[in-house]
Amino acid sequence: MTRVLICGASVAGNALAFWLRRYGCEVTVVERAPAVRNGGYAIDIRGVALEVAQRMSIADEARRRGTDTLGTTFVDGAGRRVATLPLGFGVLDPADIEIMKGDLSRLLHEAVPDGVEWIFGDTVAALRPHGRGAEAELERGGTRDFDYVVGADGIFSRVRALAFGPSERYVHHLGSNAAIFTAPNELGITRWQLIHSGAGRVASVKTDRGDREVKVTLLYGGPLPPRDRQERLRSVEAAFDGAGWVVPRLLEVMREAPDLYVAPNAQVRMPGWTRGRVALVGDAGYAPSSLTGQGTGMALAGAYLLALQIAGGTGELSGYDARMREFVEVNQRAALRPAKGFAPRTERAARMQALSIRMLPFMPFRGLIIEAMMKEARRAAGALTLPPAAPS
Ligand SMILES: Cc1cc2nc3c(=O)[nH]c(=O)nc-3n(C[C@H](O)[C@H](O)[C@H](O)COP(=O)(O)OP(=O)(O)OC[C@H]3O[C@@H](n4cnc5c(N)ncnc54)[C@H](O)[C@@H]3O)c2cc1C
Known about the structure:
Helices cover about 35% and strands about 25% of the residues. By secondary structure, it is an alpha/beta fold. The protein has a domain at about 5-65 and about 95-170 and about 265-340 and about 375-380: FAD/NAD(P)-binding domain (3-Layer(bba) Sandwich). The protein has a seven-stranded mixed sheet with strand order 5-4-13-14-15-12-16, sandwiched between helices. A six-stranded mixed sheet has the order 7-2-1-11-18-17. Strand 1, helix 1 and strand 2 form a beta-alpha-beta unit. Helix 2 (about 50-55) crosses helix 9 (about 295-310), helix 9 (about 295-310) runs antiparallel to helix 10 and helix 10 packs antiparallel against helix 12. It is globular and about 65 Å long. Bound molecules: flavin-adenine dinucleotide. Flavin-adenine dinucleotide binds near residues 32, 152, 153, 287 and 295. Flavin-adenine dinucleotide binds near residues 101 and 282.
């Protein structure tokens, strides 16, 4: 039986474990966190990723567990309503699924067929690739031999560092970060999202299936977030210093939030994602940036293609590189524009932005304007033709 080690149990790792197990591989997953990680904001399943979710038979359940936002209101620094749009911000099409990142990871994990070995609270300490696979040494002990080792361990992938070289070579920060956490719904909103934009920063609060809690995203310009938690908190506080609306209260809640996740808005750019029998999938190999929500779709599609390649049994993985290349490039290009214009540059620009959003419903060609805004994102999400799954 083909033995595969997957490092990381989030979207890419769980999806890969699903397919490999279905194809009869012997799968071990090692995840640094003590359990599948909760937390994160809404991500979108659209285009090719929707097709993968359907082939995994999880699309209906993902829709059921999806966010149920009815609309988005933009507010000014005093909390006054500036403009309102129907649907959650980021939903391109009613057929898309918008789901909280933590809910999707859990759903994928539950869908993985029995028989996978899960090792939580550990990681790969050393990798010794050889002609027929690689020997992996785990940090908490034990050296094991695998036919394939896959890094599904996110932007700062350990497997990538061990097999391909240091992060600095591949991670390109795009100049902004997002602090994401859960807070009590003190604003009393129901199935709604509120957004407040200021110069170089955006705060968003969104309910999620029930009105007790909200998901908060604080988006701000700046360098890569510091590794130390206290410094990280201080860097977010500094970025939102003097902000209006309810931001000071949100910063207070952030300090104690157990699920705080500070995501760098960064791309991972690599010439290829396989080296012998070691491969990368998801953000570890081709993160497009957290502003697009597309990282999840790429991870689902990548896991599907990599599993097919491994199950093909030739020991040759370069077909995965070839199939993914254009999809990755199109998506990474599409992510660059939102990365530049993630927030208005000045307070005046913030007011102009609010005005144009307010005017949108009255513009004669509003359908065309919205369609043009969404065209590139939609094209990127669909820029891959999936081969059929292998018989299981
Ligand atoms: C907690 C969390 C919240 C997120 N929230 C959002 C969001 O709101 N919006 C958005 O667009 N994207 C978010 N992302 C990123 C999003 O999940 C990815 O862009 C996309 O889904 C691809 O997923 P991935 O599985 O490749 O990487 P990730 O989701 O980053 O998962 C990597 C996994 O590997 C584990 N890991 C990391 N290092 C090691 C190691 N050395 N050894 C073992 N395991 C390791 C991590 O704990 C994690 O479980 C979030 C990621 C996480 C982990």
